Amino acid sequence: MEHVPVRCPVCRRDHAYVTPVYPCPCGAPTAPPLLRGAPAEPVTHRTWTDDWVSVRCHSCGRRDQWPHPELCCPCGAVLRIPVRPVATRGSSPASPARSHIPPPGTATHPRPPFRPLVIRTARDAVGAAALYLTWLGYRDVVQPEVRPPSRIDLRAAGLIAQVDSTTRPTALRDVECLWLNALNSSVTSVFFSLAGYADDARERGDGLAIPLFVMDLTGTPQPVNGPAEELVGTGP
Fold first, then answer.
1. Among 62-76, 83-97, 139-153, the least confident range
2. Which intervals of the chain are annotated as region Disordered (predicted)?
3. pLDDT confidence of 190, banded at 50, 70, 90?
4. Which residue has the higher pLDDT, 225 or 36?
């Protein structure tokens, strides 16, 4: 795996980014070719087409579309890592692939590696969050066929969760509404977002002790506040 230094342009924090590796249909590991020395850019707007990058397998020469490499900075910024162009976009993304990704924290009871679900649609985002909650240790995670007016996407024993798959940062009102729904049902709550959180939304999540996660298109949630890190570390 390739390691490259990445500096967050928002908070100036330095990171060591590990290139994600995906399995080619031929069986060989493939990775997006990172552009060393190029600055990372904050993701302020998402489109489904721009979030994919072409990757060529060095073993068989096959070209497939994989999620563009991203990094979630603890300051809340989602950073897109520059890659060297391999081929012009135009083909459809490859079939969703599952990779073995180590847990982002150390749980009280060791967990098997999390197997993410590549996100191509809003429904995939909810499915990826459900897989993650199950991996964390929640029981009986269910997803309603039709989204209810409360906008609750997932329910589990003692938990409700919301998944924001829009291309704008999650707003303060969304976080507060989830908290109120959890309060009325006497359960805890978790929030997942594809585009990150507005500053006031993240602050309120901290104040209300709501675990906030950001997901990239590989379907791997990353904790962005203390309650989320605690949940990953200790489980439900």
1. 83-97
2. 87-113
3. very high
4. 225
To 5 degrees, how large is the angle CA 41–CA 75–CA 32? 40
Distance between CA 25 and CA 208 in Å, rounded?
A: 45
Residue in this structure with the two tokens 């391999």, named with its chain if needed: 86
C-alpha distance from residue 161 to each of 26, 142, 150, 176 (Å): 37, 10, 11, 13
Structure tokens at 120: 């191509």
Phi (first) and psi of residue 206, to 5 degrees: -65, -45
Task: Looking at the structure, tell me whether residues 177 and 229 fall in a common domain.
Answer: yes
Considering only residues 67 and 159, tell me which one the structure prediction assigns the higher pLDDT.
159
| pLDDT greater than 60 at residue 87 | no
Q: Is residue 27 domain-resident?
A: yes
C-alpha of 108 from chain center: 23
- Domain ranges, residue 156: 122-234
> Are residues 152 and 227 part of one domain?
yes
- Report phi then psi at 234, rounded to 5: -115, -20
Per the structure, the count of domains in the chain is 2
Shared domain for 137 and 227, answered yes or no, is yes
Cβ-count burial 76-107 (b if 16+ within 10 Å, e if not): bbbbbbbbeeeeeeeeebbeebebeeeebbee
In a domain, residue 21? The reply is: yes
Predicted pLDDT at 155:
93
Examine residue 11 and state whether it is found in any structural domain, yes or no: yes
The pTM for the full model equals 0.58
Please give the single-letter amino acid code of residue 70.
E
